Every structure is written in structure tokens, then in C-alpha cells.
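1st attempt posting a full record on here, be nice pls
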Amino acid sequence: MHHSQHLTSMLKLIPATDRHHAAPVHWLSSHFLFSFADYYDPKNIHFGPLRVFNDDVIQGKSGFPQHPHSEMEIVTLVLEGELCHADTMGNKSTIKKGEVQRMTAGTGLAHSEQNDKEDAAHIYQLWFLPNQKGLAPSYEQKDIDFLDSKNELVPLVSGQKVLEDVVYMNSNSTVYWCNLAADKTVTFKTFPIRNTFLYVKEGSLYINGVDVGPNDQIRSTDENVLEIRASKDAQFILIDLPASEANY
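the predicted structure (as C-alpha cells):
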């Protein structure tokens, strides 16, 4: 048994119940996976350059009024509904289900995010510490249609030059989405100098001997390979991250 215990020791499972739930206004229900706003835990500020991961449900006809950001790469994935984006660079767009947006806040900008529809919008918003300061603010959005993919890790956003047809970000990281059918397996090969973050939207997974359920997280360090099998049809996000600040 010793061997399998060693295998699982580098996988930290954080159960769904450990997420911080915030409902600061009537139209927002948010789960913070890292310290954010009124939630502060000195042991849970970031995982490599991944600084914020908020799982947000925004009710219809409401949203975030214009607010400023700087020195952050902000990635938004829309899982249900849509979100209207406007910023001080003059960009106006609607991020629809299956679309991915990256905003480089850089030296500073402000934006608003509004759900103009009647139905709720479900989004993940991720903030990455940029790999360089003082960047000009910029913005990119793509319809990657990731919600319809099957049994593969689909790259959505990356600063690793090896990938094409993804949204670019100024971080040596890659965000993947996977829809994995029951009993199917995907293998993610990584390196000891990289960390892997995984968050399950729905279904359940069996990862290197660990059972992972809806809204659970895995934070993996020093693993060479993650064998990810769906015990039930599952949807999850996987983020490949540099382990040391020198590689952000």
C-alpha cells in the first residue's frame, strides 16, 4: 500500500464545502477558490500565478458596474447564458456560452460586465499574475465552442507558445476544458517544475487514486502524470501552471 499512498500524496484534494461562498448583492452568488474581497486566508492566496478563481452565477438584468483593474490577466469563461463586456479601451462585446475572453489589465483599465438577459449567467473568472509588469491594456475573445468537445483536453487560453488557435495570455500557463464521458480516461503529462489545478463542474472523476466530485478541486505538485478517469459523465477545467515565480 505504501506505493499508492506515495502516489496520492502530491495531490491535494479540496472539497467543494471548503470554497468560500459570497452573496454580497442579491444578484450574485459566487464561490471563491482563493482569497478574494472579504475572504482572506493567508494559506490560500494563490497557486503559482493563478491568483483568483471565482465561480459566479449572475442573475438576469444585473451585473458588475464599471470598476478598475491593473497588473492582472483576467480570463472569463461563459458556461451558461451570456455577459456583455464594456471597457475604457472602447471595447464592447457579448461573451456567449462557449466563448473565452482574456483581458490584460496591464497599466490599468476599467470595465463593466452585465447580464442583459432574463436568465442567469454562469461564468468562471480566473486572474493570473502577469509574467511582466507595465503591459499595455489589451483584450481578446474567441468562440472555442469548448462545451461541445468530447473526451479530450481542449486548450482555451495559453501563454505557452506551442499552442495555436487559443486565446493568448501573458502567463506561462494553459487553461484546458474537458467533457469526459463515464469510463473514459484522459492523461495529462506534466513536469515536476509545473503544478496542475483542476476544478470539477459536474460529474465525478478518479485521478491517480483519488475520487473527485462536483465543485471539488485538485491542486497537484511534483506529479509527472495525471490519469483522469470519469466515474460519471464529467466536465472540468484543468490549469497547467509554473511552480516557481521565476517561470511565471
